[in-house]
């Protein structure tokens, strides 16, 4: 019998991607779709790339509308998930694509979001040590941020093996869909095409404490992260360049061995053959993460580059992957591992 | 038992898209892959977006290498298919993505291609009247060109209903993958980004006689086509704007009725609701064609705009759709109807 | 002594381009800059590509603020120019980049704009027969729309020589800056990158009557124009493909002769050598228009393609060119004829 | 009397940009243009954005063809400049846009280029301490690489003031023109649009020793540079994110003061107001560099972002700026400080 799924926030980019994946998921039946200002509209007018659902009409986002489903995906602005979630029954699997339940440290939450901390849910990054166990059977999942997914999957093998110093520099480029459908001047096509620009520089981006949390947990010691996100002229994709000084005695061979070992069994994270580097194009619309690592002897640094699709593995695909685990469906079900390229 | 499929020309854009679709096709097992200059290389180095097939090694394109499969897709340069096809057994389904067997008129072939005509195979545009019957059980299929697919599906309802004059103007924009992986200066990223440019202007593009053939067949009289293709700064997608003078007494309502009737049962061709226009973004990676029609009273013209993905419905998706029909597999099997957007 | 110039609407794309050109104009001193919601802001925050003017602060758009200049450029939303213009003295050269004073037929204005007609000013397309004379010494100029500039310059030689039928089909692709800085969902970078889409289909685009007016005047008889604009994934540029049936006896040679003759003396409109086609990349930031013409014998049509930069020759460059003529400054002063490419 | 200038390598992207700037330079007359495989072709067929020079025909690149000019710009592949330069008279100003004469350390040259070191010429980065003096009257100039220009101008104020540790991490995004017009598969538009990808990772990019040389000279001690370049989906522009740990006692205020002081008098390098960040769009076609600095207290790092146009300030503009200084022409002559945006 099909799993019945509702999606709150179906008019946005994350909501649209969740629906794209769910329509191809063999165990799922798409139920209620909700929106905020778009309530009452046909989905076809909002998400013209989803013809099979074109005639669905969005309802307002209320607990009542979302009731009666096995799974509810929340793709809402940050801070909106808690109020809805607490009104959904404990037996419903709630998968939150917002930030609300990602951080364990209330102080970090309050410093970066400025509101009271709503709590902490099992973290939907199955590749982290212990995560699959925590997700199995859970009825609440906090889907990671797109940057933390990229950076954590790029760096955890090095930290798990104790090969690098806990002082990380990350510069990442993101496609514009990472900023959502917000009507802001700097997101206009005229502004972004042909342009690279940074934002949230100097440690102020809200994904920073999430990276710190993940990497510190793997490292077993506090890790600092200098994180600079940049906006790239493409709709989708994140390319994260991550570097840290290597510990004494570490060289390229040891780095590669650690990555091979850590990633060998992962269905969605691929260490590329030596000499081949990731590109966002290769993971367009795919739940795959491509990773490569190099050793810069002169600078004494490991350089790791990871690429993923911010809407797929970075949001909706990671969410569906976690749903699969939580419900006991085989983890890879319904998730594309091939990209749409060129 | 799985249908065993070989792909000749697996290193190119059409070949890569065929493989992307085949890896998601539940009835198919991917067999031999061949290439020309890329023989001996890992597919992962050539098509990094296809991790499930990354370790496959390409063989040289010979009849021997392609032997022993139920289906052989040919994604070769024009003029290369006939020699290979005649050495493959009559029981093998050969699906040719090249132009060699599309045209019925040898003189038209010779005028536009300059070589002897190889013959004519059943035409892989299932939506045309009579096409599904001709494809069922066939062991040879000529996949249409990407522009003719767009233009024919955009205009056949108007001609089938006798609503427009047989003098058509088409201006179409194509993504750069339509030109293949050829190393030509004008296809460099530096040249194409930020640029629109026409090519093959004045009736010299090789897809022109194919459009004339299709539309004349539907119209039951000779149709002239003024076709101007343009290269657009995007990897994929065709947007074709097609216009013809309407016949006396025809108005917007009659046009819409004809399109509704002609397309109602088609799984891959959608007439959009009034007021909504197609975009290539909405069909990125999808086998869907989006169509809209308007009546310009002042100019006395029907204007029809069709959008599709040149690599999916325009090439590989159309090829798989025809394979399904030829083999008696349900026509929509393995074919995405949702696009990857934004 | 420098010509003192004010710009109303300095925060928009047209206003920014006017300022880019004026800062390089040897006869001009940039005076007051005004805006609407941006009044009080530094220009550097709004137009970061103009460092020489970064510290200028925008005033509100009032006749008082604009008073005291030799020239006032109006880059305002349609319908706002008349009220300002009538309060500026007759001795001030007012160059209106809006539509308000372009059309001669009040009925056409009212049908397409829905407001009372404000009047008709000398038309700032110097290349049209008689236009330079009308502009010389004038103190009011109506700058043409970007599409009408492209289409008129592409087709007037054919009509002036009587070579084509008065039934024109135009399909044009425009960069997104043509839609201005408006915060609309379909103009977001996430939506436009990788996408071609039409809009204003079926004769409803407001630039249609302006093309009809221009071409009918040159042809000496009513010309119908089927005009389909499309939005292309690039910030700037228009590529217009224009076609009309040729009159009996007309062939490619006669077409080319007519274009050579009509354009030989034009400083900003270049007929390309045979076999070379225009691209928008080649006119990026330039006041040049590139034109090419072909004869499609099978379809009996002339096909003319014109390319320009919608913000330069299509708006601000055309405006400055007209200003030069009106003031008796050499026409080409301060106007770039080279593009920024690649 | 005009300075007579020849350009060797006029068919490439650097050569084209040099010509774009020279045609607008009031003191210059463009003389001989040469190419390699393009010798004998019209410039109009190779650089269609330069109509004023369209009818020039390229000669083969020989010392004889380049003889008789006051200035010769060399825009040749690396390793080709020395042989030509030594045959040009000592009185001719030779401005080399290649790498041949940039490095002072022969061992570094040989390690990264694999050929014997040709020598060291005065370095064409006027903003570096002492550089203007060295350039004045010189008849040989080595134009810096595009990445070293960006990174050096972004970081020298911090090193000159002794504010940061000599262990730098740089991640930079470049438009595709930085890779030249080479016909390589990964530079095809189909591949680069929508894609970010790294290359030369791990300290192997040839621009690394040049950055080390520049920053070490300013710092007065050896500086290590971890440099990761990435290819961005845009034709032009470099955005470099540069970070280093701050020295004890350094905070945001001291950083900003150092940058304000170091850059106040520079005509082409602008420190943006606090809170505003550079974008490559704002310097498209301009000789301006935009810089901003932030202090990340949690990570203990200064983060500096610089943006420039790799073909203008990063190559051709820097070359013309150095030519101006060498010849005693005012430094800013003929160089645009406004970008073409949006």
Automatic annotation (TrEMBL), chains A, B, C, D:
Its main location: cytoplasm. The keyword Cell wall biogenesis/degradation does not apply. InterPro entries: AGPR (IPR050085), AGPR_AS (IPR023013), AGPR_dimerisation_dom (IPR058924), AGPR_type-1 (IPR000706), NAD(P)-bd_dom_sf (IPR036291), Semialdehyde_DH_NAD-bd (IPR000534). GO terms for molecular function: N-acetyl-gamma-glutamyl-phosphate reductase activity. Residues 4-136 form the Semialdehyde dehydrogenase NAD-binding domain. Keywords: Amino-acid biosynthesis, Arginine biosynthesis, Cytoplasm, NADP, Oxidoreductase. It comes from the Bacteria. It is found in: Cytoplasm. Its EC number is 1.2.1.38. Transmembrane segments: none annotated. HAMAP family: ArgC_type1. NCBIfam families: argC. Belongs to the NAGSA dehydrogenase family. Type 1 subfamily. Catalyzes the NADPH-dependent reduction of N-acetyl-5-glutamyl phosphate to yield N-acetyl-L-glutamate 5-semialdehyde. This is N-acetyl-gamma-glutamyl-phosphate reductase.
């Amino acid at each position: 019998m099909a799993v019945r799924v509702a999606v709150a926030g179906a008019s946005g980019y994350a909501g649209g991607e969740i629906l794209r994946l769910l329509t191809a998921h063999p165990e799922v039946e798409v139920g209620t779709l909700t929106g905020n200002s778009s309530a009452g509209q046909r989905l076809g007018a909002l998400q013209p790339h989803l013809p099979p659902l074109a005639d669905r009409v969005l309802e307002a986002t209320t607990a009542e509308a979302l009731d009666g489903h096995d799974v509810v995906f929340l793709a809402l602005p940050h801070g909106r998930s808690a109020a809805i979630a607490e009104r959904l029954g404990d037996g419903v699997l709630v998968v939150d694509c917002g930030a609300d339940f990602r951080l364990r440290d209330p102080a970090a939450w309050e410093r970066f979001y400025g509101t009271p901390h709503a709590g902490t849910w099992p973290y939907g990054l199955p590749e982290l040590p212990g995560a699959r166990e925590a997700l199995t059977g859970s009825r609440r999942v906090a889907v990671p941020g797109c940057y933390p997914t990229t950076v954590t999957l790029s760096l955890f093998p090095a930290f798990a093996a104790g090969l690098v110093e806990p002082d990380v520099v990350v510069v990442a480029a993101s496609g514009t869909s990472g900023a959502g459908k917000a009507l802001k001047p700097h997101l206009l096509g005229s502004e972004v095409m042909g342009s690279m620009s940074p934002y949230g520089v100097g440690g102020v981006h809200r994904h920073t404490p999430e990276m710190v949390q993940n990497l510190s947990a793997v490292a077993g010691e506090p890790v600092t992260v200098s994180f600079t996100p940049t906006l790239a002229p493409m709709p989708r994709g994140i390319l994260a360049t991550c570097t840290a000084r290597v510990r004494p005695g570490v060289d390229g061979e040891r780095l590669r061995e650690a990555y091979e070992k850590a990633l060998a069994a992962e269905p969605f994270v691929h260490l590329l053959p030596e000499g081949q580097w990731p590109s966002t194009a290769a993971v367009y619309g795919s739940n795959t993460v491509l990773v490569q690592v190099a050793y810069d002897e002169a600078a004494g640094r490991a350089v790791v580059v990871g690429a993923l699709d911010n809407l797929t593995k970075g949001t909706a695909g990671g969410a569906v992957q976690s749903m699969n685990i939580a419900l006991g469906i085989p983890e890879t079900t319904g998730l594309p591992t091939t990209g749409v390229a060129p």
